[in-house]
Structure to design on (115 residues):
């Protein structure tokens, strides 16, 4: 998915809609201070790339939040997706689980799964 290029007018609209308040620390962004357009839900975690998902954030707050919250969430979403499509197999499967060639019956006996 291609990201939307945010123009200066769009940045101004986002700033005005949120009254110039950082959504992470709830402090006002003062003129001349660096700020970013932050996504409430990261794009990699299924967030939308439109005005409904854009927020104002101080650059320092945004980078700290991205490293501490967003990156672990994105990594988890990717791990879940890889397991869902079958690209990643468990390194320690449960004994007698679905992937095993053997199964344990209710009486405790062990039989081959193909029989």
């Amino acid at each position: 998915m291609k990201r939307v290029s945010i123009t200066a007018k769009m940045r101004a609209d986002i700033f005005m809609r949120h009254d110039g308040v950082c959504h992470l620390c709830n402090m006002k962004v003062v003129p001349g201070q660096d700020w970013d357009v932050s996504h409430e839900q990261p794009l990699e975690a299924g967030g939308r790339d439109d005005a409904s998902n854009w927020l104002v954030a101080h650059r320092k707050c945004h980078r700290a939040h991205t490293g501490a919250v967003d990156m672990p969430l994105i990594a988890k979403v990717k791990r879940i997706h890889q397991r869902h499509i079958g690209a990643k197999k468990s390194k320690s499967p449960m004994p007698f689980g679905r992937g095993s060639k053997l199964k344990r019956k209710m009486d405790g006996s062990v039989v081959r799964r193909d029989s």
User: Anything to note?
Assistant: The beta strands are 35-39, 54-58, 102-104, 110-112. The mean pLDDT is 93.
